[in-house]
């Protein structure tokens, strides 16, 4: 498939004319139809996130001292807290499935461990409202868990579902960590595309991509000495971002102290901008992708580059979201504003959280 490049043909404007963009990380195309964002919206409106979350609730199973569904009582933790998921999707001792005897009915063993990690004891906080030291503690806990579980399992998936819109059932700052005996689909896909790019070009794909985006600037949201955040050229979700290190790094546990400090800083800057966009606690699903672990620790994984994906669904306001239905499910992904437009909006937002600014300033921003 041919797609319009950065310069475009005669009369082409990416913000006005539909075109397709290639995602080399997933080996797929996305349809960009920026003119569609002008259409009137009469579809479903979401309920804005609940801003009145109690700091501590004995009925919230993630709170310190609360009783979980299995009857266990959480300790009165004061920092991060990790515990086994009470309803795990993966268990370490599942039996092998039977052989169906036909190639169209294949099954394979799926074993693993699922954990929950609370970021902070206070339910009314989220990462953008936490201190840099508290976010750094989260990063250290992520790296420790990946190293611990990755010693045995080939894939460790750290992910955060933020907000009820993304299926988060308990309002408390937390994430999940699933370690599996297999490489999940997204990991297998990124393994293939990054290996192929490295074989053809001699450089890790996302390291080269980060260098290009740092030079071009048009999709850059925030940056510091060790990291940059962009709305990727091939973004599918409206305000999707990609968090990338500037140097070649395989896994979270490979980050040095200064890189972990600067990671805490750039994460908070990005997440403050997200919240400031529509002045709500911005919902998203995010996750880290790094080189496979377990038996792959002994292999050459130099084609991999550590990165984090942020997938937020909100499109026009706190109540209008992007749905992946119809054409997206049956043909290919489609987005309603260009990545450059999304990056420009995020880049222009203040880096002081709207809840921490004077009320007059917040009201003025909301009316703008």
What features would you describe in this structure?
By secondary structure, the chain is of the alpha+beta class. It has helices at 132-150, 185-201, 205-216, 257-278, 327-330, 339-348, 359-367, and strands at residues 19-23, 28-32, 81-84, 112-118, 155-162, 174-180, 220-223, 227-230, 241-245, 284-289, 307-311, 333-335. The strands form two sheets. The chain has a nine-stranded antiparallel beta sheet with strand order 3-4-6-5-10-11-9-8-7, sandwiched between helices. Strands 1-2-12 form a three-stranded mixed beta sheet. Helix 1 crosses helix 4 (257-278). The longest helix has 22 residues, at 257-278. It is globular and about 65 Å long. The chain starts with 18 loop residues before the first strand and ends with a helix.
Brief overview, please?
One of its GO terms (biological process) is galactose catabolic process via UDP-galactose, Leloir pathway. The protein contains seven helices and twelve strands.
By DSSP (H or I, 4+ residues per run), the number of helices equals 7
The portion of residues forming beta strands comes to 15-25%
Average the pLDDT over all residues and give the rounded result.
Answer: 91
Using only CA atoms, what is the Rg? Answer: 21 Å
The biggest beta sheet, please? 9 strands, antiparallel
Distance between the termini: 41 Å
CA-based shape = globular
Order of helices and strands: EEEEHEEHHEEEHEEHEHH
Give the oligomeric state.
Answer: single chain
Q: Structural class, from helix and strand content?
A: alpha+beta
Strand order of the largest sheet: 3-4-6-5-10-11-9-8-7
Low-confidence stretches: 1-6
Helix content: 25-40%
Number of strands: 12
